[in-house]
Amino acid sequence: MTRPEAGEGPGKREQATARTRTLVVCPYLAARGGALERAARAPEARRDEAVGLADAIDLDIVDSTLVSLNEIRPATYLGKGKVAEFAERTKAEEIALVVMDCALSPVQQRNLEREFKAKVIDRTGLILEIFGRRARTAEGALQVELAHLAYQKSRLVRSWTHLERQRGGFGFLGGPGETQIETDRRLIQERMIRIERDLESVKRTRALHRASRADVPYPIVALVGYTNAGKSTLFNRLTRADVVAADMLFATLDPTMRLIKLPRGGAAILSDTVGFISDLPTMLISAFRATLEEVRAADVIIHVRDIAHADSDAQARDVEAILAELGVVDAHEKLIEAWNKLDKLDLDHRAGLAPHNGDDAAVAVSALTGEGIDRLVAAIEARLARGRALIDVELEAADGQGLHWLYEHTEVMTRETTAEGRVRVTVRAPPDKVERVKRRFHIGAR
């Protein structure tokens, strides 16, 4: 894709992108069990998602089209007839970019560009482009750059044969006889090593933050879900925050944390994370692993689902697969499903949810209107209470140090002053803190 010149601001880049006339091509295998069978999704739903991805970076989408394939051609992915058809369209309609909603090999990408006389990017390249534009923090930018370099490196190794020319010897670029492709590959590798080193430092810093939070009695509740499922809207509803919540794919990329109050007086830290998507490039999962460590460390995981979406079940399976890849092996023990966008369902569909709605495993909500939010918060509190002991403690009114210790190391659920002037509190303590509380205040747990 066209890159902005040095000195161009975001506004100019958006204007330049908006002028990029784009054709979205969504190939799928007609036979079941093929490489393009993604969680049994309908081709039309996959096309809508691909258009949404392209919309996310303001491309001028001339058209989107489904292509049924009997087999994948090694050289061009599409059959000869379709390649010729799209080549005519790109010329006649002055299309500058063709988005292929599939994973292209470097050879396939190069051959299609040669036939179409236009830039071609595949699904991975498009997602990387979106992530590159959405990253706002230094850490997010590093993660995206690492993933993009890994993608570029594969293209260098396999397809950029036109770069294999001799170049003369500037010492810092490569000695005499080093080919351009070798130089580019080496420079990319060196940059990747530096980024990985920086991200390891970020990971250590996050680990220290998590360790310090372990001494504070706030459990972690992480929001996960398919992109555009409404995580940020739900985050704002629960925390009264103002996180970007737009009706677009990957509106949130950098993680955000806020404190939320629970009904019985406790509190938790709520974490909003990047949205998942089907066929999320492995390099992106790897690059964002440091950020997604927050999900692994969470006490409760809220899986936000767009229950009004036609592919809601397939999207849920994609999210669960990525959680498993991240090593969240006990996800089901931690998981609560928030069936979001209840406001988009008619009465019949709402009635179908009734048998499953209301326990602490699945709660139907509308983050937009607030419907069901109280039930969700109660479910979060109930899930957090699992394995945590409620302990009654009585203190002398003058024992400020003991009271402070309780606030620092447990969740203080209730507090009152007795007729004798003593302070009575009910606290909730995680398993590793129960014995400390009992020893310090010489009391039993219930």
Give your account of this protein's structure:
The protein is α/β, with parallel strands linked by helices and about 450 residues long. The protein folds into four domains: about 10-130, 3-Layer(aba) Sandwich (Rossmann fold), CATH 3.40.50; about 135-205; about 215-385, P-loop containing nucleotide triphosphate hydrolases (Rossmann fold); about 390-440, no CATH class. It is about 45% helix and about 20% strand. The protein has 16 helices and 13 strands. Strand 3, helix 4 (about 105-115) and strand 4 (about 120) form a beta-alpha-beta unit. The chain is elongated. Residues about 1-20, about 35-40, about 155-175 and about 245-255 have low confidence and may be disordered.
Helix-strand blueprint:
Blueprint: H1 10-18, E1 21-29, H2 43-55, E2 60-69, H3 80-92, E3 97-100, H4 106-116, E4 119-122, H5 123-134, H6 138-158, H7 180-214, E5 220-225, H8 231-239, E6 256-261, E7 267-272, H9 282-287, H10 289-296, E8 300-306, H11 312-325, H12 331-334, E9 335-340, H13 347-353, E10 362-364, H14 373-385, E11 389-395, H15 400-409, E12 411-417, E13 423-429, H16 431-441
Parallel strand pairs: 1-2, 1-3, 3-4, 5-7, 5-8, 8-9, 9-10
Antiparallel strand pairs: 6-7, 11-13, 12-13
Helix pairs in contact: 5-6, 6-7, 7-10
